[in-house]
């Protein structure tokens, strides 16, 4: 995608030295576009933990490069396994993280230590390239869904109103995004779309990241409080919900940013289609009960009790929202049961959120 007419991916190897890794510091968006240079595995782990990079596909890709950086220091078996385990443990919910590290180890374990660095950069690059291809395919398949809605309604009915929760755009992936990819393609095709952007408390990924992305691309959008979505659905102002996900079970349960479950309940009550966009790397074929088996990350209470923003003087400051002494809980994700999901959009096609639907698209996992 482009920023100020310059094409970027969300992670890349610095062309000047050929080995350090570049990312956007997402904790600085939308107020500043800071590009970080990562030179050590520990820096990568810190970037993932602190959400300088976030989004399930991007976390996996960046972690893959983190292992390549680690091997530059020590490519022995013991060091590789240690650093891989450390990276894999940085965040628990997104399955892409463990998938990417596992794929890297499968490629690297049979190799002699002297051959591992070059192979690690090659494999990390392949992971990134495949992510871009998958997300572009998700965009095309999701675009068909938007076109179907337009055909049913007719152009004279006004914009197609799409609600999304959290950020599932190109800065949550290597490029294109998942839930936002169909929206970008629809807008570029001239379809009249408008996006309701949930603020996504407590880290405000919607208000800070999704709104910034859509605005940069020229897509009409409106930021709303997290609790406004149900009201809009009741009054016929939402035609479609599309969200991303950090982990999908083999039976179609979906883990996504906290608050997604409530949007799905509201959508079901009001007959609004609720679709989830994901690359196949986000499917966890080992589990079937998302509520019981998906680990839910508990983050620091300060993310709830405090908030950062831009002052009138142009300074980014953090202020406290809650009374001193009030405790805060901060589960970062929730699980939407498959029965509330209209369908899944993957790179291989759209399917029902069921074991049969997923196996029809991915028979090799049956």
UniProtKB/TrEMBL annotation:
The active site is at 246 (proton donor). One of its GO terms (molecular function) is S-methyl-5-thioribose-1-phosphate isomerase activity. InterPro entries: IF-2B-related, IF-M1Pi, IF_2B-like_C, Initiation_fac_2B_a/b/d, M1Pi_N, NagB/RpiA_transferase-like. Its EC number is 5.3.1.23. The keyword Transferase does not apply. The keyword Phosphoprotein does not apply. It catalyses: 5-(methylsulfanyl)-alpha-D-ribose 1-phosphate = 5-(methylsulfanyl)-D-ribulose 1-phosphate; 5-deoxy-alpha-D-ribose 1-phosphate = 5-deoxy-D-ribulose 1-phosphate. It comes from the Bacteria. Substrate binds at residues 54-56, 91, 205, 256-257. The record marks 166 as: Transition state stabilizer. One of its GO terms (biological process) is L-methionine salvage from methylthioadenosine. Pathway: Amino-acid biosynthesis; L-methionine biosynthesis via salvage pathway; L-methionine from S-methyl-5-thio-alpha-D-ribose 1-phosphate: step 1/6. Catalyzes the interconversion of methylthioribose-1-phosphate (MTR-1-P) into methylthioribulose-1-phosphate (MTRu-1-P). Also catalyzes the interconversion of 5-deoxyribose 1-phosphate and 5-deoxyribulose 1-phosphate. Part of a bifunctional DHAP-shunt salvage pathway for SAM by-products. Belongs to the EIF-2B alpha/beta/delta subunits family. MtnA subfamily. HAMAP family: Salvage_MtnA. This is Methylthioribose-1-phosphate isomerase. It comes from Novacetimonas maltaceti.
């Amino acid at each position: 995608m482009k920023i100020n007419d310059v094409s970027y991916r969300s992670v890349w190897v610095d062309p000047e030295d050929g080995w350090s890794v570049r990312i956007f510091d997402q904790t600085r968006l939308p107020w500043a576009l800071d590009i970080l240079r990562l030179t050590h595995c520990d820096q990568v782990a810190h970037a993932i933990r602190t959400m300088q990079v976030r989004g399930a596909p991007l976390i996996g890709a960046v972690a893959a490069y983190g292992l390549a950086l680690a091997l530059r220091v020590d490519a022995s078996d013991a060091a590789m396994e240690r650093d891989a385990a450390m990276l894999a443990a940085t965040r628990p919910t997104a399955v892409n993280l463990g998938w990417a590290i596992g794929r890297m180890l499968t490629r690297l374990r049979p190799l002699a230590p002297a051959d591992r660095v070059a192979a690690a950069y090659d494999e990390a690059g392949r992971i990134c390239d495949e992510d871009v291809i998958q997300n572009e395919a998700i965009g095309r398949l999701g675009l068909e869904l938007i076109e179907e809605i337009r055909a049913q309604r007719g152009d004279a009915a006004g914009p197609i109103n799409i609600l999304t929760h959290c950020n599932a755009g190109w800065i949550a992936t290597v490029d294109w995004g998942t839930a936002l990819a169909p929206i970008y393609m629809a807008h570029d095709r001239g379809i009249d779309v408008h996006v309701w952007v949930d603020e996504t408390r407590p880290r405000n990924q919607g208000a800070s990241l999704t709104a910034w992305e859509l605005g940069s691309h020229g897509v009409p959008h409106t930021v709303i409080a997290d609790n406004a979505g149900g009201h809009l659905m009741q009054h016929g102002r939402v035609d479609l919900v599309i969200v991303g996900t950090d982990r999908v079970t083999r039976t179609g349960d979906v883990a996504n940013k906290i608050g997604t479950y409530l949007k799905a309940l509201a959508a079901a009550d009001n007959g609004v289609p609720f679709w989830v966009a994901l690359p196949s790397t986000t499917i966890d074929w080992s589990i079937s009960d998302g509520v019981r088996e998906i680990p839910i990350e508990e983050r620091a209470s300060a993310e709830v009790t405090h908030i950062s923003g831009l002052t009138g003087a142009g300074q980014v400051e953090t202020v406290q929202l809650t009374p001193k002494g009030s405790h805060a809980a901060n589960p970062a994700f929730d699980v939407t049961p498959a029965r509330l999901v209209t369908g899944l959009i993957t790179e291989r096609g759209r399917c029902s959120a069921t074991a049969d639907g997923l196996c029809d698209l991915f028979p090799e996992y049956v």
